[in-house]
Amino acid sequence: MYTILVCDDEKDIVNAIKIYLKAEGYNVIEASNGKQALELLAANEVHLILMDIMMPQMDGIAAIAQLRENKNLPVIFLTAKSEDTDKVLGLNIGADDYVTKPFNPIELLARIKSQLRRYTLLGGMVTHPSLYKIGGIVLDDEGKSVTLDGDPISLTPLEYEILKLLMQNPGRVFSSAEIYKRVWKDPSWGAEGTVAVHIRHLREKTEINPGEPRYIKVVWGQGYKINA
Fold first, then answer.
1. Which one of 50, 92, 154, 191 is least enclosed by Cβ atoms within 10 Å?
2. What is the 3-state secondary structure (H, E, C) of 78-135?
3. What pTM value is reported for the model?
């Protein structure tokens, strides 16, 4: 049984989400702020987090930034704000997805299942020794490690899977929708913005000058590729 941590200071929202999750067979842990969420994470095995952004004591942004120092479990942000900047901010600090309030319960459950499926596949996947090298980037798929000019770089699971997809197919252009379907294992809801944020993170970690990338290139109107 999967355990989901629901963190929101609005009790009615937590109760509503809990009803839907329990009906699907999930175990639910509740928190009302980021500080409490981190304490519960330290004491319980949690498989996914639903995290509000605006909360007292410690907001969701600060909590996830601290979480990402040592955990890679899926995080879906719940936000009452619809502006693109808030969605991008959540993805920037390590969220895997976001849902804007008021949300459709069916869509929320679909996104949860998608993230849990991806997390399970990444954690339990058996791989054969594979080494991919393009320029100074070396991806060791057996050891799940990436180095740049001999120095290790730290990637989130999603960043790693995007980089691997591109390195397995040098020169091939992938649309945002195709990257989303292959990496997130789900239909491409809002793929363009989500993929763009993760590509930018990859560039920041793999490029000397992210504004003039040597490796990951944009093919305008078509998608992304990595130069052989």
1. 154
2. EECCCCHHHHHHHHHCCCCEEEECCCCHHHHHHHHHHHHHHHHHHHHCCCCCCEEEEC
3. 0.56
- pLDDT at residue number 218: 92
Are both 54 and 107 inside the same structural domain? yes
Q: Answer with the one of 124, 151, 167 that is the final residue of a domain.
A: 124
At 203 the pLDDT is 93
Domain enclosing residue 22, as ranges: 3-124
Look at residue 60 and tell me whether its pLDDT is greater than 50. Answer: yes
Compute the distance between CA of residue 60 and CA of residue 51 in angstroms, rounded to an integer: 6
Pair 15, 104 in one domain: yes
Residue 30: its H or E element = strand 27-31
Q: How many domains does the chain have?
A: 2
Domain limit, last residue, from 76, 92, 124: 124
The mean predicted confidence, pLDDT, of the chain is: 86
End-to-end Cα distance, the chain: 43
Instruction: Render pLDDT for 192-203 as a digit per residue (tens, 0 to 9).
Output: 788 999 999 999
**CATH code, domain carrying 221:** 1.10.10.10
6 pLDDT band, cuts 50/70/90, is very high
Shared domain check, 110 and 7:
yes
Residues 6+ apart with CB under 8 A from 153: 146, 147, 205, 206
Q: If 0-12 CB within 10 Å is exposed, 13-18 middle and 19+ buried, where does residue 224 land?
A: buried
